[in-house]
Amino acid sequence: MNAPPKPDHARCALFLDFDGVLVDIAPTPDAVRVAPGLPGLLQRLADRLQGRLTVVSGRPVSQIDGFLDRMAPYAIGLHGAEGRGPDGALRRLEAAPGLAAARAILRQASTDHPGLLLEDKGLALALHWRGAPELGDIALGLAEQAQGAAGAALALQPGKMVVELKPADVSKGSALAALMAKPPFAGALPVMLGDDLTDETAFRAAAQAGGSGILVGPERETAAEYHLPDVKAVHAWLQALADG
Ligand SMILES: [Mg+2]
Question: Which residues constitute the domain of residue 121?
Fold first, then answer.
């Protein structure tokens, strides 16, 4: 896969995943380290792109805004279940029916298996096994059991050493497409940077809107057109776009 070209400022809209793209993945979700210059870099980029910059994450919007000093004009959280624009108002879906039943099962699981970490995101639940890689199969089985108890309103979303239960009718791709339909995004060419399986829907949505995806990290089968090797390369590419 090739390195991405430098997009045209006048037409580009940037969509940036957070973990594994803007910051290196850490042993636990709250242990990530934000590079000191990153919020300022995003602010400069947003100015150059006339506000067409969105962080698209599986995390809650409140966490993204906390890590980035709210420098991204737009933020999509919980894979699309939450969204915020420049006015600061947070739009959230209702909690899926069955979420409480799934939460009870995964809480018990994290008590039974101390190597598993349950991250309760409110509208979504993530079960991590980064601290105990041997528990991956057990975690996936427990997540399937929790999804079965919750029903069709919650869907499984596998990731890197994590499996999530998220509202079934949201995805990063549909969130990207919804933003692209409105100003200031309408008519622009979306470029989506992501590293994980959950980003594939957004790579496809970006391509469908005439833009492209950039896979970050090890190469694999992907809907992205371009590739950057790591977070450091992402920062350099963003810096060149902000300066150029
Ligand atoms: Mg990621």
Answer: 99-167
